[in-house]
Amino acid sequence: MTDVVTARELGVVGCHVCGLVSRAEHVPPGATCPRCHVPLHRRKTNSLARTWALLLAAAVLYLPANLLPIMRTVSLGDVDDNTILTGVIELWRNGSADLAIIVFVASIVVPMTKFIVLGTLLVSAQRKSGWALKQRARFYRLVELVGYWSMLDVFVVALLSALVHFQVLSRVEPKPGVIYFGLVVVLTMLASMSFDPRLIWDRKETDD
Amino acid sequence: MTEPEQPRDGREDLPEPVVHKRRVGISLIWLVPLVAAIVGASLLVHGWLGQGPSIIVTFQTAEGLEANKTQVKYKNVVIGKVTQIALNHDRSRVRVKIDLEKNAESFATKDTRFWVVRPRVGIGGVSGVDTLFSGAFIGADTGDSADEQDEFKGLETPPPVLHGQPGKRFTLHSGDLGSLDIGSPVYFRRVQVGHVVSHALDESGKGVSLQVFIDAPNDRYVSKSSRFWNASGVDVSLGADGLKLNTQSIATVLAGGVAFQSPNGPHDDTPAEENASFSLFNDQSTAMAPPDGEPRYIRMRFDHPVRGLRADSPVEFLGVNVGKVVSVNLDYDVKTQRFPVIVGAVVYPERLGKAHQKLMAAAVDKGDTDWSQMVGRLVDHGLRAQARSANLLTGQLYIAIDFDPKAKPVTFDPAAKPLELPTTSGDFDKIQEQLASIVDKVQKIPFDTIGKNLDESLKQLSGTLKQVNENLAPEATKTFKQAQQTLGAANNALSDDSPLQQNLGQTLQELQRTARSLRVLTDYLSRHPESLIRGKGKDAPPPAAPATSTNPSQGSKP
Known about the structure:
The complex is a heterodimer. Chain A is mostly helical. Chain A has helices at residues 7-10, 47-67, 84-93, 97-127, 133-146, 151-163, 176-194, 203-207; strands spanning 12-14, 21-23, 31-32, 71-75, 78-82, 170-174. Chain A has 8 helices and 6 strands; from the N terminus they run αβββαββααααβαα. Chain B starts with 17 loop residues before the first strand and ends in a 10-residue tail after the last helix.
């Protein structure tokens, strides 16, 4: 793989939108595609900083998302506030182990994975480490793939709130936790989007 | 590696990127974590600031309570939440940790009461129905105190009166609790105005004190002279106007209740003060009766059995119920070797009303210092107690205190405690005595002799009748036969066609004729008296002619 030349080595840059390849030994900030006028850059602008910022924001919001209740179930006057974890525990106790696992994976495992994977990627990219390049790339694709599955919880709450509206009999209300959780999911997705996977491979250039 | 500076074929015709100056130099992306941090921090601060005191309430059971779910409510406003439920060290009670909200800090003070609101179903009604579905919650009630406290003992039942509820408490004293309980209603003119809030035995154990709470504004109807009575059950009375069934409400029939009312007639209408004490009577009629006043104990000694007299039998003075029998005991008199019955009774002289007042006034005038002296004087006038029969069917007795003018004078000891009232034998005993004397007299009648004499007389009579039958009857038959014959003859003689009859008719005709000729003669003679001497004239007029003429001398006899 070391013999694979990069665009930078060839002194060209490709447009992300229209795919036009321009000749540029050096891409200054503010350079735009001559065809579609989209800003051109060799690497996603400020990728590491943006990813760090978004990831940190997501991590901060992940606390209230897990501590605050996300859903209130009112059934015959029995008010029940559930956070994500208590919901999972309740599902498990009520015998719906499969559902509990799904919710647990979607709401706890996936965001945590994202935090860890993105964090690792960021640190390793900053250090321009040459460790496990292929696996890191695969991890990144995995993060991209499963990222939006975390929205499952948000969708469940939204659907239930809209559908279960039987006045006294039973009612489901969204609680503030779900907003934070949604924000976490969106922010982690943005973070993984703003991370430029090419940075993984940028080891060589730094050595120059 | 390869030199990047070296141009390659076919790259010369590639266009150069257009370079613009960046408008913003600093990355705004760091605002995102900043905002997130601010939000997180504000949540943290909010949560920390909103955190009220944490208190511990102990209950006997945690039934219906759930950590992180059970709410604490005051006036149905959530003021906290149960966060932890654990047993205390000796496992006798349940420690419930409650996180109060910031604005409910004042509930962590000394007088605050906590209790678990559960659905309760009683005869008097159902409460806490909403908790059937929503689960129990912990109710709270504030107090006056400002002293902070963080450990409380929870009530097992809801407090009957909440702090600051307008109204008044009163204390009622009763012999027993009856069917009353906490929460039993209190009625005024059949309107529920309050309820029983607590009950406890008196220190002495001889009675029960009840606390009732009358809600404002109806508490003003409790006056100093109000009478309270136990309105439990059904009051059935059979009076001159028929059978009367009286009850406050169906609920009181089952669950009991208290009613009060002011007495009839003039009375003190000033509203009673908080915590005033009243007596709780057993029924309305007792309650509404004039006040009994001070009870007096009297003792009576009956020398005859008083079967049918028992505790609670009434004591009447001239027909007015003045008290009741409290004890009936047998005694033994060593001297006379007899078993007198000692009857103890409690009497309320004030039930006599005006008579009592006048008696007391008179007693004071006479310089009596004690009630007993007055009674002594009445005893001298023949006041006696008597066991009378109240009901011939059941043999119930009552004590009648009455004046017996024929009573033998007795010695009365005014200093005796309790006062001993002389007795006379009861009316039933009198009847018995009279009956006995009648029986005695009847027994004295010589029924044997009477019977014998009667027997002899009857025998004689029988002999006489035999004689009559034997001797007299044939003679009589003969006589009757003869009489019959005589009568037959007489009958024949008197019949229409009998010669006697005919003869009689002729004789009578003859007599008629004779009478007529005699009249003619007398008429003639009256007109011609001379004919007696001269004889009859030749031309004698027809006898009828002179009969019509009016002659003053006609009819006169010569």
